[in-house]
Amino acid sequence: MILRKIFFWLHLCAGSLAGAVILVMCLTGAALGFQKQMVRSAEKKETTVAANPGAERLPMESLLARVPAESGVPTTVLWHRARDAAVELGYGQDRVIFLDPYTGAKRGEGHAGLRAFFGRVENLHRWLAADGPWRPRARAITGAANVVFLFLASSGLYLWWPRSWTWNAVRTATTFRGGLSGRARDFNWHNAIGFWACLPLIVIVTCSTAMSYPWADNLVYRLSGSPIPTSVSGQRRGERVEEPEPELAGLNDLCARAENQVAAWQTIRLRMPVGKSPNAIFQIDAGDGGRPDRRFQLTLDRKTGEELRWESFSSYSRGRQIRAWMRFAHTGEAGGAGGQSIASAAALGGVFLACTGFSMAIRRYLAWRSRAKAPRA
220: how many CB neighbours lie within 10 A of its CB? Predict the structure, then answer.
């Protein structure tokens, strides 16, 4: 009973301190749950092309040569195996132009409003909408909130654990009961939602903690018995220090080499070789985008076509394999649509856990003040 009481007060205090940040992260996490599907649905008209049975795709050099000069230099080119899919030119994280792979005609651009909305939600999720010099501080706050959330989920499971495993006790702790109000309702909701969302939340928050702190990331490698990789400085995804003219010569052979590398490829993304960069880097996906074990990376010499580096999931150390899965376990994409549904439902459950937790804490505080003010006999 003493240990349980200690955990209860730690749980209450930790939730009261970090609950607001956790509420924001859960709410935004639920909103981001099906981001890719929603964007894909909104851009279906632009991403779908009419493919005649005998039509041939334009070679990559010819296709990119038809990009209007005013569109600028793309940072990435993504093409699909499906014949009715447009080629996607990426300009950083927020802008995409779609081209007809058979004619080179511009199909349109990505849904700017929806992409901007999800960009703001992701910014709020990761950095509490902070920018510039405030971003590292906000990142430290969300990282600390992740650690607190992991403690809350773990200690919540301990506090939920029935003292006697009878059917009535388990049913009371895991199901919603009607006719309740006030503190009794909040307590019932907090327990029932916590039971169903606890394990998914522990997985989600454990993964986000590894992504938040180098020590947690390194711990994954240590526990798996793998060497800790050395950090490599570089630019963020989609950033360019300069935008020289893209080097198109030789891309046809390089792209064909990438397609032949993995027979079951579904999408291939090329980081556009520009300036004096000697390499062409291809990210090949043989799945639906959420399976790291179906992803490959091929680096070719831009001039000779020689294979410089080939990375497959099986070539990674055990620690890197686990770390790769954690990225997609955090969003639920590792389990497909079902996994995304579970992750989104757990995040939404986290919203209710934060709200009911705040409600019970406030009720407890008001009751304490009322008792303190009451005249003693």
Answer: 19
What pLDDT is recorded for position 300? Answer: 94
CA distance 237 to 281: 13
Half-sphere exposure of residue 20: CA atoms within 13 angstroms, side-chain side = 3
**The residue type at 252:** N
Q: Tell me: the pLDDT tens digits for 261-318?
A: 999 999 999 998 765 667 899 999 999 889 999 999 999 998 888 999 999 999 999 9
Domain ranges of the chain: 2-34+116-227+336-373, 51-110+248-316
What is the rounded distance in angstroms from the CA atom of residue 343 to the CA atom of residue 163?
29
Q: 242: which 2 tokens?
A: 């300069």
Helix (H) / strand (E) containing 214: helix 214-224
Q: Give residue 144's identity as a one-letter amino acid code.
A: A
Contact 22, 91 (CB under 8 A): no
In DSSP terms, 297 is beta-bridged to 283, 311
pLDDT surpasses 80 at 231: no
Mean pLDDT of 183-210: 95
**Residue 240: what pLDDT?**
42
Cβ pair 338, 290 in contact under 8 A: no
